[in-house]
Amino acid sequence: MNEDRRERQHTPGPEGADEGPALTLRVHQNKYLPASAGRTEMHAIVSVRARGLGPAAARTAASEVIVIDCSMSMSWPPTKIAAARRATATAVGILRDGTRFAIVEGTEQAQVVYPFTGGMAVAGPDTKAAAARVAARLPAVGGTAIGSWLDLARRLHLRQPAAIQHTLLLTDGRNEHDPPGYLDKVLDACAPHFTCDARGIGDGWDAAELKRIARRLHGRADAVLEDAALAAEFEEMVSASMAKALAGVRIRIRARAGSRVGFVKQVHPTRADVTDEGVRPDERTWEWTTKAWGDETREYQVSVLADPRGDPMGDDVELAGVELVVEGDTALPPPEPESVLVQWTDEVLLSSRIDPRLAHYDADSELGHAITAGCDAYEAGDRKRARRQWGRAVQLAHQLGSEKMLARLSGLVHIVDAATGEVRIREPIRPLDLNSAIIVSEESVHFVGAERPRAAAPPAADVICPACGRRAPATAEFCQQCDTPLNAEPPLNADTPLNAELPLSTEPPFSTEPPLNAEPGGAT
User: Which residue numbers in the chain have pLDDT < 70?
Assistant: First the structure.
């Protein structure tokens, strides 16, 4: 693809210059690979952005099923079921008139409590008022069978198909009354039909289970930290659902002859390996349909096999083409296809660079691994390992500018120094705080750094190692020859952007190094 055309197409205009609905596509990468590497992988970030869809969303047919856990455990403390009643009424009140909707009472079985005749009601002033009155009487009796609840939601959505189909799920417990394996079968059956956002309230729910549900149904899961905050959570989820206008967008990646797409991972807004969810029409092509879009950005990491044999040195070569196909009945035109490029070089300064987005999401992935590794270690009784992993997570969250992750981690540890990852484990840790950290461990911190020109240019000034004299790129942290530090870490202050590119530790998530903040006598 012509480099000048690519530059021109993606030059950002002035604030507010974009008008009307649009879908944009961009590939971020360092296209340079060392010719001496032989067969290797090219990694790139594919960024897809939808904007201006508000007017279309107002005309888009939608259906909403609100599933509320009404098991006995919701009665204690009484604030849980009271919060669920208020939140359900809030969610119903936000529904756009004309939306098909239902309220499902979930116990050891699933039952539609509104509309009274079963099926789906049509949102309007009268039906929303009646549904709110039903919500105020939701009971707290029975058990928990989440698979049965979601299967009823599937059957309701199928009765009157709509472009945007969404289910809201609230639970305070674990899936105890479905047969073994039933929930996974239900998730497979539901995945093609609707998305699902889930919330856990109280301290008896299973974070891993809720994450699995949200991941399989292309939604997001989170913890309700305070019962009184549940109504705001429901308002946010239903508002987001009502703002969706596209039923789906298909991403198609076609590699050149002799090459192959290795993997595709969603890296924002949540991390998920979607390689196996895609289909391969032929050996070189991979495609996958993303679900329900409003005004938002989603980003994916793509790996494509690269082989220098037969390629010219110093010229751009297209490794793969990326294109979008808009699903459903819409007049929104797809953007121009983009290319994953490679340029083979012997210049180390070019091939050693990492694209800022790739570096950001690599660090973000390490943050998620550190959180879950710390939680696993804590539950296994290994306090030293838990403290080391959570300390690393705090350090990464601080460097990435994630206030949400720092807040969740502060429920697990006392943060002594976020920049260095010095922490002390809280004792005792509430189950809710442990769940609240686990449940968001797959959320990602969006990269918001300034756009970089596509054509990489040599840095203005390389760094010379003061110890051995070796030349290194200006962004290098350590000398590759003697490990001498080259750049001191800049302080994080009021003038430093939250997503400033700060040096990240090279310690792997599961390091065997001594704890970052070991205390005298080995105390944890």
Answer: 1-19, 329, 450-463, 468-483, 487-524
Q: Largest Cα–Cα distance in the chain? A: 81
Rg (CA), the chain: 25
Q: Check if the beta carbon of residue 277 is closer than 8 Å to that of residue 191.
A: no
Burial label, 441 (beta-carbon count in 10 A; 0-12, 13-18, 19+)? buried
Burial class (CB in 10 A: 0-12, 13-18, 19+), 133: exposed
- DSSP per-residue codes, 257-323: TT--EEEEEEEESB-EE-GGGSEEEETTEEEEEEEEE-SEEEEEEEEEEE--TTPPBTS-EEEEEEE
- pTM for the model stands at 0.82
Structure tokens, 342: 């490679």
pLDDT score of 331: 77
* 3-state DSSP percent of the chain in helix, strand and coil, to 5: 30, 25, 40
Q: Using alpha carbons, list the distances in angstroms from residue 417 to 366, 391, 395, 397, 517.
A: 19, 9, 8, 12, 10
Phi then psi dihedrals of residue 390, to 5 deg: -70, -35
343 and 32 Cβ atoms separated by less than 8 Å? yes
| Nearby residues of 236 by Cβ (< 8 Å), 6 or more positions away | none
CB 373 within 8 A of CB 510: yes
Residues pairing with 249 in the sheet: 290, 326
Q: Identify the DSSP state of 35.
A: G
37-86 residue pLDDT tens: 899 999 999 999 999 999 999 999 999 999 999 999 999 999 999 999 99
For residues 69 and 142, give the distance between their C-alpha atoms in angstroms, rounded to a whole number: 10
User: Strand pairing partners for 32?
Assistant: 343
Cα–Cα distance list, 400 to 74, 197, 312, 333, 447 (Å): 37, 25, 38, 35, 9
User: Measured between alpha carbons, how far is 272 from 298 in angstroms, rounded to an integer?
Assistant: 12
> Of 362, 367, 511, 360, whose CA–CA distance to 442 is shortest?
367
Nearest Cα neighbor of 405 from 442, 377, 373 is 442
Q: Which amino acid is at 412?
A: L
pLDDT for the residue 328:
72
The number of beta carbons lying within 10 Å of the beta carbon of residue 463 is 17
| Residue 266 to residue 460: CA distance in whole angstroms | 34
Q: Give residue 432's Cα distance to chain centre.
A: 21
